[in-house]
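Anyone? Bumping this.
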Amino acid sequence: MDAKWSNLIVFISALLFASLVGGCAHPYTTPEVNRTWLNFLQDNRTTRQQVIAKLGEPTASFENGRIVAYRLIGPNAPDPARDIYLFKPLDGIPPIVARAPEPLDEVDWSVRLEWSLVLVYDPQQIVTRHSVVRRF
Amino acid sequence: MNHKLLLIVLGCVLCGCDAQPQAPTRDQIEKGPLSFVQDGTTTREDVLLRFGTPTGQFEGDRILTFRLAISRALEVTPASRVALTYRHDDQGVWNGTTHELVVVFDGKNVVQKHRLIQIQDPR
Amino acid sequence: MGSMLHNFRVALSLTAIASLALCCSGCLVVPIGHKETPASPNDARALTPQMIATLNPAMSREEVLLQLGEPDFWWDGQRVFAYQWTMSTLDVIWVAVSPGSIFGGDIRALKFHTLLMEFDANGQLKRWEQFASNSAALGEADVISPRKSSVLALKSRWRSTGG
């Protein structure tokens, strides 16, 4: 009887452990975004022209364009080979999308991940600071 | 005796999984993760670099609003809008918002005043 | 060991009762009324009567934002704001049993609230009005807020009657 109970408890513990570990699914992380999608970006080197060539016009701008922000929206899957969706929703106008790897109508938009990319330019139009903020 | 001890340990582990810290007060949040937002000192640049794209932008960029998801562990994450399809992105639900931060800037791009509004208890 | 045997007997009895219930047909409906609460966790920003009572014509757009937070929609060069929230006042829990199967769900009585406000050219609050309409939803997943199309229609009608 003792051995049966011990085996049962070990089995249940193993199941619980497996479910806890299995639950830690691996979506894209911010360092991965930096390493894959934004690897061209370097403070004090990258120019505004280079940023626009890669990412297009920003989603929002502040202080007469000195600070700009992009919405980076990507698939909820750890696949560095997949490209990102750059998304600029405008009120009443269909979104402008760049570099979508698949037809957007086929994307489950409710499970995608989103980041904000904020860039600060100096008067010479060179990126001085930037941040990538993961959104909830 | 060994199997009884194992059961007790298992029970303690399971009970521990359910324990949550108390929901932080607005004061704790303002003195904790939001302490960098100081009237008269913090710049618009600092706020944007920390929180990303504001969820609302008014009177040019004089007033910015941010919908935030603040956890019980005082982690602050900007909220994102979730919609079923990309066509409805601007009508989506703001996912996980617990607080809204309204920030007013002066002519020198420095925070003039700000207010944190609680929407619901942090999770 | 004695208590474990007792618990086993209780579990067996409950299983027998449930099995018996599955062999019968019937329906159970339980309405649960409660005070207005946000219809879903993502709809928790509900403007209270006390918050709305602070509005006055001397308020600037800045003061409104600091008081009420970010509106859900804004138009016309930020001259019109719309706040929208959905509250639930009644949950109806239903269970239907037929031989071999059991169904159940939750129907919620909802109230959609919209607060529209208009500012003048100087950014001063000119007027505001709250609207409410009733609806129902099957469970929480059905609650989708805000509803831009309905707010747009409301805004058009409201602006056409404004001074």
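Late reply, but here is one note on the structure posted above: Confidence is low (pLDDT under 50) at residues 21-25, 90-95 of chain A.
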